[in-house]
# Entry
Amino acid sequence: MNTPPTDPPQGNAGGNSVGGLNSPYCANSGGGGGGATAVGANASSGSAGAGGAGAPNTILGPDTTYAGGGGGAGGNNAASGGAGGGGAGAQTNPSSNVGTAGTANTGGGGGGGGCAPGTGAAGGSGIVVVRVPSSFTLAGTPGPAFTGSTHPGGDKIGKFTASGTLTIGGA
# Structure
């Protein structure tokens, strides 16, 4: 959660779960994971909660949303992940116990795993985006991890999807 408080917030709480066992299927349901801008939804009897929404950002041009919460796993449904790359949870009834991974380069949370036994999925990898005025130079290495472009207003944008080195030259 957002402790200590920052602006903008660093994330939100996940939803509450609901317990119980309904043989032969597990009826436990998990709450959705918290996203960057919204809490995860609470579970209800047999139904999992959806992941909370991520945060939109326009630095790469068209609106892109990052850091959506992962969906909870449920006996009757596989809850969706939140906007921003959150992965869906598993549906335990009838048999899928493995959550869906968060989308790569979004920082979205992984979906929850079902029961007997279940496996939660990994969150999506993150991304680093840098924008500098057009009078600067912008370079990064290694090449596959770094891509550069020019913003419609002339600013330069660098995007890292893996570890690398950024070099910014003076104006």
User: Anything to note?
Assistant: Strands lie at 21-22, 25-26, 55-57, 64-66, 128-132, 137-141, 146-150, 156-160, 165-169. The first strand starts at residue 21 and ends at 22.
